[in-house]
Amino acid sequence: MATAISAKDVAALRSRTGAGMMDCKRVLEQTSGDVEKAIDLLRTKGIAKAEKRARRGTSEGVIGSYVHFNGRVGVLIELNCETDFVARTDDFQNLARDIALHVASANPIEVSTADVPADVVQREKAIFEAQVAESGKPEQVREKIVQGKLKKFYKERVLLEQPFVKDDKLVVGDLVKSLSGKVGENIIVRRFARLEVGAE
Asked: Which residues on adjacent β-strands are paired with residue 79?
């Protein structure tokens, strides 16, 4: 019996690969809904556009900025893309401004989960493990709870995982992927700097 493929599964695969809806549906059916195998199959067939985009160079872009109305918080952000043409578009410039505003408001510690220093992750994990140990939860579920808490920590503190301040149904990473899909170029948040008067 064929595995039922939901529209949500198809949309999720499409956002990860940039492939067309019908291509995504077809490979999910061929792999019985296994997403990783479906991605491999799309790459084999040369259809996974986002995978290719992610490896392309991003030497163009803009520095977006935001200064809070009271002049006490300011942010600079480097948003990169592949061509000067895309960097000059209103959509790209607006995304840079929106992310700078978000950084001012949400105060993330890093751009992506991969950027969070290992010692910070270990410290947070040790705290979560101690909390779970004190809760008296069974041994077999503790690691799952710790991973859930770590995921929540990333969502609260890492830029691309944070709910967007202007629309909390979206995470910042989705905004970047959405524009990348629209313009057909790899777009990345390279770095940011947030200054606050009186803060260390």
From this structure: 62, 189
d(CA 19, CA 42): 8
Distance CA 104, CA 100 (A): 6
Is the model's pLDDT at 170 over the cut of 80? yes
Domain annotation covers residue 2: no
Alpha helices (runs of H) in the chain, residue ranges in sequence order: 7-17, 21-30, 35-44, 49-55, 84-87, 90-106, 118-135, 139-157, 172-183
Residue ranges making up the domain that contains 130? 117-156
Query: CA of 184: how far to CAs of 18, 19, 83, 107, 180, in Å?
Result: 9, 11, 11, 29, 6
> Which pTM does this prediction carry?
0.69
Mean pLDDT of the chain: 85
Same domain, 11 and 81: no
Within this chain, do residues 96 and 171 fall inside the same structural domain, yes or no? yes
Residues 89 and 22 grouped into a single domain = no
Contact 19, 47 (CB under 8 A): yes
Assign residue 80 the CATH number of its domain: 3.30.479.20
Are residues 27 and 11 located together in one domain of the fold? yes
CA 78 to chain centre: 16
